[in-house]
Amino acid sequence: MKLKTYISLMGISLILLSFITSCVDDKGNYDYKKVSTIEMDYPKNSAYDPPYQVEFTSRLIIDPKITITDGVGKDDFYYEWFLCSSADGSSILQLSKSDTTPVLDILLPEEMQISKTHLVTFRATNRLTNLSFSKTFQVTVKDRLQTGFLAITEKDAGVELDIIAAFMKDGVEELTLHTDILQLKKSAFPRAGRKPLGIYAFKDIYAPSPIDPNTNRIKYSVYLLTDKNTDRIKPEDFSFKEKSYNISQVSYIPDKYAPKEYIATKMAYQNGENYYAYMGGNWFFMNLMPTSIFFMYPINMYKGEETTYKTPPYIANVRFGAIIYNEDDHCFMLHKYTWGDLTNTKALFQTVKLADNPDDAFRFNNPNYDLVYMSNTNITNIMVNTSTNYNDVFAIVKEKITGQYELLKFSMTRSANIVDKSKSRKIIPANIDMAKIKYYSHHPSEPILYMASEDKVYRVITTTSNIDVRDITDEVLPPGEKVSCLKSMLKKIKRPLLAIATYKANGSLDKAGTLKMYEINVQNGDLTIAKHPQEPAENGYQIDMSWSGLGKIVDIEYKEQ
């Protein structure tokens, strides 16, 4: 069979995987006259064949190569195409019927506009003998919007999603902007009157719901955080089920610690094994493998105690755990566990102070420190510096007596111990209005930090004794616009790009946003607009990674599935 595919709305990927053959081949009739039959050629693709992806247009065309043998009824066939149930092979929709051609040429029906594998049957029937000849095969439809840079944005009516979709065409990954995805997909996710807070996408065996009986679902979570709800959307089609996809469905928090509302203002994840959610002023922990443990007790408790300490919405991942901050005692705390600890006990959720040494560059336990921000330098699935295999952490603190802001950095081993002599402390120049800084992004391997307020963007080199800060606002922020997001894009693409989102502050937010991704010069921290692909493709395709016409981007993730 020669297979051609052209599909509408936003783009699909069509993969021929395998086929199931059922063929009635009667060698003759009761008068022993030869009966005409149909034979169909079909390429037997290996399961390891690369996906064949095509640009999205308006039609689905399948042109089978058939051979009609001589015999009774040779010129008297009609042809049908059916969409079948994956459960029992029965037809659920007739796609087409023709007296003249076996070619399927239709608009993609709504029933196939879902990213999944569909069973499609071709049937040819001889009118004179009433014999039918059929073949059933699998067609996998992948929405053009399945993967790419997914941004949660604020628009005039509320929350929306825009995406820079990554889609293969003629062997080249093209990036194209698509806006208003929730509206376009007719998603039931509540958008109106909400403010977006963040987006998190990662592998998750319980996605989109822990009670979903469908074993073929994509096990990948896309959490949308807003000021009114924290819910997942289905990664295949952006659909939503109220309550079923809510974060409360993976929470078994005792009344003593339960938040008034199950609204996460911050989340963090690591390697598809565990993740954290900040709800009601507490950090909660969930483990997926090898033992499943839902959100239960806060981790901001000392070992052996049941009273929580105050902790801000900042966290840094380490192998088998995380680092949070204790605002009551002004110290950094370690949440650490081993696979052997994965039992439903309170001890699993408790934390200990990080220890200090006399000759350290700074103290983890400092009553004069207030934490301003904390994160990992390497924002990937596993948060590990691949050159050292360490978890690198940076924090911004304010020294209460001097009023100075300090940049603290340290590294953790795989066993969650402080790397010897890894602690460093740098004073941030007083001429930087740190009280207005909202966004931070550290280069994954180089001593380069970028930080921004709504109106200013700074490049910070941290190798010198007095750190080198340069105002790069005029280079990256167009006049009349404000910064709404600044983030490393290393996670999936393995390229340390810096994403800076800006928006026009006056007027409608619907098309006010701009997203630019920058290559970083590791010698001096200078930024230049990134190219995709880095080198022109064979067909000449290469674009600047810059897009306008989005909403006000609040957060962005690379959606892998």
Strand content: 35-45%
Distance between the termini: 29 Å
The count of DSSP E runs of length 2 or more, i.e. the number of strands, is 40
Adjacency order of strands in the biggest sheet:
4-2-11-10-7-8
Rg over alpha carbons: 28 Å
Principal-axis shape equals elongated
- Determine the CATH topology of the domain at 2-143: Immunoglobulin-like
Question: What CATH architecture of the domain at 2-143 do you see?
Answer: Sandwich
Structural class: mainly beta
In helices, the fraction of residues equals under 10%
List keywords for this structure.
single chain; 561 residues; mainly beta; Immunoglobulin-like; six-stranded antiparallel β-sheet; five-stranded antiparallel β-sheet; 3 helices; 40 strands; disordered N terminus
Write up what this structure looks like:
By secondary structure, this protein is an all-beta fold. The protein has a domain at 2-143: Sandwich (Immunoglobulin-like). It is 2% helix and 43% strand. The protein is built from 3 helices and 40 strands. The strands form 11 sheets. The chain has a 6-stranded antiparallel β-sheet, with no helix packed on it. β26 and β27 (405-412) form a beta hairpin.
